Records
---
Amino acid sequence: MHFHKRPSWDKFKDCDVTPEQVFNDRRRILKQMGFVGAGALLSSNANAGIFDLFGDKKDKPQFLRSDLPHSKNTQYDSVLNGVLTPESKVITHNNFYEFGTAKSDPAENAQGFNVEPWKLVVDGLVDNPLTLDYDDLMKLFALEERTHLLRCVEAWSMVIPWIGFPLAALLNKAGVKNKATHVAFETLFEPEQMPGQKSRLMGGGIHYPYVEGLTMAEAMNDLSFLSVGLYGKTLPPQNGAPIRLVVPWKYGFKSIKSIVRIRVTDRQPPTSWNQLASNEYGFYANVNPQVDHPRWSQATERRIGEGGLFSAKRIKTQAFNGYGEQVADLYKGMDLKSDF
Ligand code: MTE
């Protein structure tokens, strides 16, 4: 198998990047996006969103809507141990290797990403296979806002107000057959739109399309969420428009973006980072401060947007990212050191 011994995200590992570099990178993105007052955005207007970045530009993507009707679900808020990560950070500090491996690449390279028409296929071991278009994604399910922690395997984290619906609602609509054991997810494969899929260097060595998977019990847990928006708006392209998974008790790489296929199956599906380096990235990928990555500690994390731009403040990582009460039972009897 062709893979880098050191995945390229290690090279760009956020904790290795100096805050000054981050700062300069962000200034560069904003400049390239035609936003003149970059300094103002970073200081007094720290909550500026993607709409503000585009201003009144004529080429503003039409799918960026702020009218998503939704209720608020605060059921999981007690887990949160910090303030919301400013929207300006959530949409400019991303991992989406289809658009490049640097944190600033997705915001820079994904703005022309076209999500209409979109087709999400739900098939495999289901009674009613589904094909949903872009509008179906927004309209077919009761949308709710939930704030969840996102903990990247690279040891940084964010607190993000997502809008979406439980994955179980979609699976129940399709009707899962009894013998199904797993759910497989696949990202769009369209190299013309996603430059990282054309170049192994730009795409970090991943074999595209990016794929992920969950056990059926994980998929049916209420915490497994399909997100179509954040901060009250439809998802910006760099965050996985038009629909992405959010599994907050697992490392961020499980939260696959821009999904075109959800396949119900009776075996454990392959997953992209596990295919690339199986000794470093397991199938389960539960956040676990007691199991270090072979090349760095998972005991602590850096909360993006907290402690000031040049702060190196770290906080303790929680088992299951703090969601143990909801999910620890799923792993009863398993050795989480070997099943990492
Ligand atoms: N999905 C796809 N298709 N491609 C990716 O490169 N990166 C993953 C995940 N989903 C990735 C992906 C990783 S490593 C993380 S940490 C999260 O997306 C980051 O989500 P965010 O950019 O919205 O914070």
---
Amino acid sequence: MSSIHIGAKVGDIADTVLLPGDPLRAKHVAETFLQDAVCYNNVRGMLGYTGYYNGNRVSIQGTGMGMGSVAIYVHELINTFKVKNLIRVGTCGSIQQGIHLGQVMLAMSASGDADANSLYFKGMHYAATADFDLLMKAYEAAQRLRINTLQGSVFSTNTFYDNEPNRWEKWQKHGIIGVEMETQMLFTLAKRFGVKALSVLTVSDNIVTGETTSSLDREQSFNDMMKIALELA
Ligand code: HPA
């Protein structure tokens, strides 16, 4: 049996799934990091692959951008395909002076503006947090690999473009280390359904200064992020 948006059979997807927003990044990672990778999904071009990393079975599934899209894939991965560990691998914007482009981050928690969460929790605020076991394992893997990581809280937004000039001031003051568009929903759904989740992110741009990474730097920090996440398979 497949699900509405994932045309795979139960059993085609590994217990641990890496979740990039971009489906072509899923393809790239499957082709460069995995052995014996098989594509199990092409519905809406949202590519998904299962293969092996250091002998461990792992899948990588594109999610699209934003919390509406990631919620669909996460829900189906957990409820139809019985996935146990969901690890977002993506980029984020920096809103802090001292955080540089290319910095790899492990998200401990995610604030955000997901309407689906406000409605579900009747206007109250749920503190969406990473699974501690995955967080600790990722941190230990990064130390072994000698990759510097920053741990902290991120903000997930459903609005990429916004005209409000001081939009990030409050969040900057409250120590948010990165802004992206999926983690709050991923953490909330993982907790709701009793599975584990983590977000590993790299800083691709500075939202305050408008600085963006060169493609070479992006590649290096992207590879570092992937190596950490793949160690969790
Ligand atoms: N905003 C939201 N999500 C992002 C950004 C951003 O500036 N950069 C990378 N992901």
